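Input sequence (433 aa), recorded before submission:
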Amino acid sequence: MLKPTLSVRDAGALILGMVVGAGIFETPALVATNAGSEGVVMLAWLLGGGMSLVGALCYAELATAYPHSGGNYHYLMRAFGKPLAFLFAWARMTVIQTGAIALSAFVFGDYASQLFRLGEYSPSLYAAGAVIVLTGFNLVGVRLGKWTQIGLTGAAILGLLLLVVLGLSFASPYVSTVPESPPTQGNFGLAMVLVLLTYGGWNEAAYISAELRHNQRNMSRVLILSISFITGIYLLINLAYIQGIGLAGMAESEAVAAKLMRRAVGDSGAVLISLLIAVCTLGTTNAAIFTGARTNYALGLDFSLFAFLGRWHQRAHTPTHALLLQGAITLLLVLLGTLTRQGFETMVDYTAPVFWFFFLLTGVSLLVLRVREPEVSRPFRVPVYPLTPILFCGSCAYLLYSSVAYTGVGAFISVAVVVAGVPLLLWNRPRQS
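Predicted structure, token format:
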């Protein structure tokens, strides 16, 4: 049986670890390319924080009214029934969460290989090693898993703050030495897609709602404070980028953070930033492993075919079998990324459309449950209802369209994997309550 073992600090570390990953080092250059001006860049990152906060308010109501280790799975089940909930849990187990773990592990492998290369398949070897080691930490118990997360997240945040301080204090204001060409017409919609992808991950708080102490009081605090802090950090980092290397310098750089650090402290800055990004992605990977296994556990409680996943290790306070299966599937996806030789890009294509489809349905579930279950106690009620959840659903629908428009063959593979769950659903019988 699950116990409320996580504090506000623990939950906040998990959210920060999920959100603050390699994206903030990779997407600012692309956002600058599509924004067109420095003011629009800052506006895009501010709007991204605001839209994430809108989603967090919706999740705060769901998580406090229906605290459950299954998170989205549980909300979809109450709103739409077990068949759709099963397909979501299947998709999360085989596509969404395992793909996200593999994606962040590949980024860790890329930057760890900058520090010490392990041969031709170095990024994949580092990625597989990170999945195995961090899964092992979480198997030992929730205490080691959460302290690992707190340590990695703390190191990442300190490193980001160091980047901000060095960028704003030691990198002299950027002055172009050559005439800049007129800026191309920006694509603000694409810029927002990239920004919101960088903010992604805060929704994982739903999967620890049953383990958060004083959930009804603390969940909204965790979500709102975490996203507010992340928004502030992202704005400061982009301000440092703009001051240190300029908009044109951001747009033309493949490693914007390394370029800033090189201007601030010299060539040693490139090594420092590689270490920083490696730490950030380890934090993201560990947080995804921690929360991802909770949905698999919930699936095992409800469906006989996956009953072996619904076993909770009482001493370690962790879903052992769910963690093991999740690790095995993730390693298969690491192999897939290795075979395509485009690990990160393959995982983005693989996960994005399926993620935004079910994210949209979760927003709709809030509207459905307000009507269907009005008697349920809601310690936190989303403000300006129903406009707030409608706005959230609209943003999810837009990102679903964008993810389909900009992804490649990986999207077709992921859809095929989700469809493969339909025969399992027809054959499998729900477990008796």
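Checked by second reader. The domain at 8-427 is CATH 1.20.1740.10 (Amino acid/polyamine transporter I).
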